Amino acid sequence: MTPPQDSSEHHHSHDHATGSSRPRLAIALALTSTVLIAEVITALLTGSLALLADAGHMLTDSAGLIMALVAAGLAARPATDRSTWGLRRAEVIGAALQAGMLTVVGAVVAVQAVRALIWPSPIEAHGMLIMGAIGLAANAIALVVLAGGRGASLNMRAAFLEVASDALGSVGVILAALTVALTGWHRADAVASLVITALIVPRAAALLRAAMRVLMDFTPEDLDLAEVRRHILEVEHVEALHDLHAWTVASGMPVLTAHVVVRDECLTEGCTEEILDRLQECVAEHFPVRIEHATFQLEPVSHLAHEAQYC
Predict the structure, then answer these.
(1) What residues have CB less than 8 Å from 87, skipping those under 6 apart?
(2) Which residues contact 212 (CB under 8 A, 6 or more apart)?
(3) In this predicted structure, what is the pLDDT of residue 3?
(4) What is the annotated localization of this protein (predicted)?
């Protein structure tokens, strides 16, 4: 007798989130690019390291937002026979690249800031203050635009973090400019750069770690696979379980597969539908992660010996 196999899958469209994120990203990119050009010019005229550091963040943000925009477009492309999940993981790769760039820029700025603390240079505070205020206003608008979609994917989360880092940078520039203007303490510029770096780099590193967990097919962090195994084994007629795997294809798309061994007579008596329903209920109702793509292969106990021959 050929070992029976049954599977149950849910197919849902995840294109809405990726599609709706593109206009937000385009608006944020236009704002960031405009301010970037203005900040570079002003930083060169005023000699402000904090403003130049913020321009550096703006540069990586512009590049990051371009990557995010491209990744969102790729992720929205439909699945094909050669790419059965589509290109949804492009948004995770984009997020990893953005986080990596932000971490590198933060390290470079930190080194330059330490040098500026030791050998401070004169700063023209008034131009620095004006540009900081303009940058903050542009970043605030971009943050409002991106805020509604930041939970949609790692890609949007990375884009939001990029712009948030710029907003913090603009606040640092303003505070440093005020300090220099009121007290003449030029090292305030370098101190502001170090504070900005200290706030941003840990968040970028955390985002990079989250993206790498997806790319390495780790089990979703809030899913206890041991608990999943225990619940499945408690389902009536289930005798054993093997090849249990859980991973994340892209943001919001956890996947679970398993080979479930059931009593031989249960398959011949036609109760596979009941077992599959119970397994789907088990995954859907008892775990914090909503797993919409779960596939179960039902196998009779007598098949275990045969499977060992082919593995």
Answers:
(1) 74, 75, 77
(2) 96
(3) 41
(4) Membrane
For the chain, what are the domain ranges? Answer: 15-215, 225-310
Residue 13, both tokens: 């469209």
247 in Cβ contact with 254 (< 8 Å): yes
- DSSP designation for 271: -
Task: Assign domain 225-310 to its CATH architecture.
Answer: 2-Layer Sandwich (3.30)
Residues 6+ apart with CB under 8 A from 125: 46, 177, 178, 180, 181
CA dihedral of residues 246, 248, 249, 252 (deg, nearest 10): 130
Which residues contact residue 297 at a Cβ distance below 8 angstroms, ignoring those fewer than 6 apart?
5, 6, 7, 257, 258, 259, 260
Q: Give the neighbor-by-neighbor strand order of the sheet with 254-262.
A: 238-248, 254-262, 293-300
Contacts of 308 (CB under 8 A, 6+ apart): none
Q: What are the φ and ψ backbone dihedral angles of 125, each rounded to 5 degrees?
A: -70, -35
Could you give the 3-state DSSP secondary structure of residue 131?
helix
pLDDT confidence of residue 50: 62
pLDDT value at 234 more than 50: yes
Where are the alpha helices (H) located in the chain, listed in sequence order?
15-46, 49-75, 90-118, 125-147, 154-183, 188-215, 225-233, 264-268, 272-285, 303-310
SS3 state at 107:
helix
Instruction: Give the tens place of pLDDT for each residue, 41-66.
Output: 877 777 766 667 667 667 767 777 78
Q: How confident is the model at residue 149 (pLDDT cuts 50, 70, 90)?
A: low
Please tell me the CATH code under which domain 15-215 is placed.
1.20.1510.10
> Is the pLDDT at 7 greater than 50, yes or no?
no
Residue pair 6/297 in contact by the 8 Å Cβ criterion: yes
